[in-house]
Specification:
β6 and β7 form a beta hairpin. The protein is globular and about 70 Å long. α4 packs antiparallel against α7. It is 38% helix and 21% strand. It has a 5-stranded mixed sheet. A 4-stranded mixed sheet has the order 8-7-6-11, with no helix packed on it. It is of the alpha+beta class.
């Protein structure tokens, strides 16, 4: 018998056996499934070997989280203003300052403004040491900065949304409402919105996808993700400055009656 013929016969036997085995396995069913509930609570005995293995990593993470990046001379909360807040202004300004160079390097020109969401501010900026942990407390989510290109019409829809009065953090824009809540002034980089212009707005991926009912972000002309988490923006911003002392200002106001 030739060698090639022998190899062919052996190969056929292997293939046949494999196919038959697979067909049999398809019809396999366990006779019995046994499960056990293992409760983990404060009374569960610690495993010294596992703890000794984890401790070095745990200590390194805690040291990193508690490393001091800057100092806040006072405490700032998102409830300290109706239309703009010190901590919200700080977050929007941080995104504007830290991510515009990234966008400009990629696109060749800067973006125009920033819009974040009030609900994304998850804690106060407390007086005293500002640490990496502070950034995680302010922004515990994995949201990243994206820059969307909007038409003049979409920008006007944005201002109509913002006139409802929630202190969504903005930067690079100025909004003034009349005493009856109508838009009196809405500027981007000091200029009124033109219908035939497009505008580049930095926001987060949650809002770009319609979060907080910001539907004006739907169907943008273009989108450029920056691969830069807002939390990391804050960390880099805190590292850049020794003292973080944000203020409320006139970027979003309403005339008094």
């Amino acid at each position: 018998m030739k060698r090639t013929t022998l190899i062919t016969i052996i190969s056929s036997i292997v293939i046949y056996t494999t196919v038959v085995s697979c067909k049999k396995e398809l019809h396999y069913a366990p006779e019995r499934i046994k499960s056990e509930l293992i409760t983990v609570n404060n009374n569960t005995e610690e495993n010294a070997e596992i703890i000794s293995f984890i401790d070095p990593y745990k200590n390194a993470i805690q040291a990193e989280m508690d490393s001091v990046l800057a100092v806040a001379p006072a405490s700032y909360t998102k409830k300290d203003g109706k239309f703009n807040t010190a901590v919200g202004n700080m977050m929007a300004d941080a995104v504007y300052e830290m991510t515009n160079p990234v966008f400009e390097k990629r696109a060749g020109y800067p973006f125009n403004a920033v819009l974040l969401n009030y609900g994304g501010i998850r804690s106060a900026l407390n007086q005293g040491a500002i640490t990496t942990r502070t950034a995680y407390e302010l922004m515990p989510f994995e949201n990243e900065v994206v820059v969307v290109e909007l038409s003049g019409k979409q920008m006007k829809a944005m201002f109509q949304y913002l006139k409802n009065g929630t202190a969504h953090p903005i930067s690079g824009m100025e909004i003034q409402l009349s005493n009856d809540g109508e838009i009196k002034k809405a500027l981007v980089q000091g200029e009124e919105v033109a219908d035939n212009n497009t505008y580049f707005i930095a926001t987060n991926d949650y809002l770009m996808n319609g979060g907080d009912n910001m539907t004006f972000f739907e169907n943008p002309i273009s989108v450029l993700p920056l691969d830069y988490k807002i939390r990391n923006v804050l960390i880099d911003y805190f590292k850049k400055y020794d003292t973080i002392a944000p203020v409320r200002d006139n970027r979003f106001t309403r005339d008094s009656k």
